[in-house]
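Hi R.,

As promised on Friday, here is the backbone we talked about, encoded as structure tokens. Could you run it through your design pipeline when you get a chance and send me back a sequence?
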């Protein structure tokens, strides 16, 4: 009896010490400690959701919806309802959001419970756990891709992918999107997916294949093969990714830490066979306006683009990293020519290390036409471009978050 009591007291003291240590740890450390508790896929699926051909035929025969509407028409309806957009996919180790007080009016994204500073009101009385979260992205305006080059130049205050805060209820353009608030902020596909198996099969394919998925959580990205079924990963065609880029080194020059970047690229190359569009936001940390040695970053990017089948690839850099790079490319190209052009702050980098700069159109055109480029598609060499003679396998380099510095607009360069 005596030894049982001693062991019981030791166990209680051990638990109390562990609780105090956890409270003193930074949040990132707690996340690492709980990675083993991720909501990973089961080794075997309890139910088969994808119907066999015979089951599919039976569903089509007995359903007014699936029996009378052609597949192409059903696809168009699903595409308009749930596809062709920019969606958030997030997995975070957090407290649940606190319940909203009765009668309180909210204007935050998805109607999330936030304070006046748009910080989430977490319910700290409930322990943290891994929680899935998703929404339509309202950081951008409707049809943003059609005018994004113009927006980047004329509205530098609009958040870039690296500064997206939809996850925390802080989105800039909820009011610009059609629909009823706050339901328009949500994807709203769950009811359709749960209605029947055939609806699930057609809806889930549109969801993953036609939307761009925004992901910023390291745990989610590095563990994608353990969190999403292979058939869902193989359906993903477009991603918007935020990757932190920690800078080390003396005041003379900063050297980026690229191990995390390499891990991200390895996951994309091995697990996403249908990926054709990638926007990679490299968010610099610790730059302090120091020169940055970008060659260590370009090497894995060049290798990645050569072994994948991307049709559109964009890499954004924080302002303090992009501006010196942009100026260096300008000077390199200017040394080869003797004409004066007004260049646009976008850089096409070929995998062989050569560069192409887009240039502004004539002043007789409207401003949005002057700054129109082929982005996100590769440049058309010879049409408002200077630099390399060929646009081979490569990617766009653009300016990301502003870093509290004056953004780079246009520069006149003698070429």
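Update: got your reply. Pasting your designed sequence below so it's all in one thread:
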């Amino acid at each position: 009896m005596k030894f049982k009591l001693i062991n019981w007291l030791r166990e209680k003291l051990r638990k109390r010490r562990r609780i105090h240590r956890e409270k003193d740890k930074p949040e990132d450390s707690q996340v690492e400690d709980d990675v083993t508790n991720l909501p990973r896929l089961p080794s075997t699926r309890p139910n088969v959701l994808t119907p066999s051909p015979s089951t599919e035929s039976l569903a089509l025969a007995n359903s007014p919806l699936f029996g009378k509407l052609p597949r192409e028409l059903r696809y168009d309806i699903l595409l308009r309802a749930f596809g062709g957009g920019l969606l958030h996919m997030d997995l975070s180790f957090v407290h649940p959001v606190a319940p909203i007080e009765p009668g309180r009016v909210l204007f935050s994204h998805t109607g999330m419970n936030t304070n006046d500073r748009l910080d989430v009101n977490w319910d700290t009385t409930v322990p943290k756990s891994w929680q899935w979260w998703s929404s339509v992205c309202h950081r951008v305006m409707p049809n943003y891709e059609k005018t994004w080059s113009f927006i980047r130049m004329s509205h530098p205050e609009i958040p870039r992918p690296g500064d997206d805060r939809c996850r925390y209820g802080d989105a800039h353009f909820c009011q610009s999107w059609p629909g009823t608030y706050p339901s328009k902020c949500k994807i709203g596909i769950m009811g359709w997916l749960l209605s029947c198996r055939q609806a699930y099969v057609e809806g889930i394919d549109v969801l993953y294949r036609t939307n761009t998925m925004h992901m910023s959580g390291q745990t989610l990205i590095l563990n994608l093969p353990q969190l999403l079924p292979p058939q869902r990963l193989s359906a993903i065609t477009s991603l918007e990714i935020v990757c932190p880029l920690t800078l080390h080194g003396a005041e003379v020059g900063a050297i980026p830490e690229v191990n995390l970047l390499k891990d991200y690229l390895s996951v994309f190359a091995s697990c996403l066979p249908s990926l054709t569009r990638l926007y990679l936001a490299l968010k610099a940390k610790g730059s302090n306006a120091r020169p940055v040695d970008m060659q260590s970053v370009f090497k894995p990017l060049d290798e990645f683009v050569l072994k994948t089948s991307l049709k559109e690839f964009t890499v954004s850099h924080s302002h303090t990293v992009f501006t010196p790079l942009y100026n260096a490319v300008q000077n390199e190209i200017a040394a080869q020519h003797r004409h004066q052009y007004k260049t646009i702050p976008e850089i096409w980098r070929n995998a062989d290390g050569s560069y192409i700069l887009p240039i502004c159109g004539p002043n007789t055109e409207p401003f949005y036409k002057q700054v129109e480029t082929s982005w996100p598609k590769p440049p058309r060499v010879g049409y408002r471009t200077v630099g390399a003679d060929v646009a081979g396998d490569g990617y766009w380099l653009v300016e990301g978050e502003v870093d509290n510095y004056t953004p780079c607009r246009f520069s006149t360069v003698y070429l």
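One thing I noticed while checking it: Residues 13-33, 404-415 have pLDDT under 50 and may be disordered.

Thanks again,
M.
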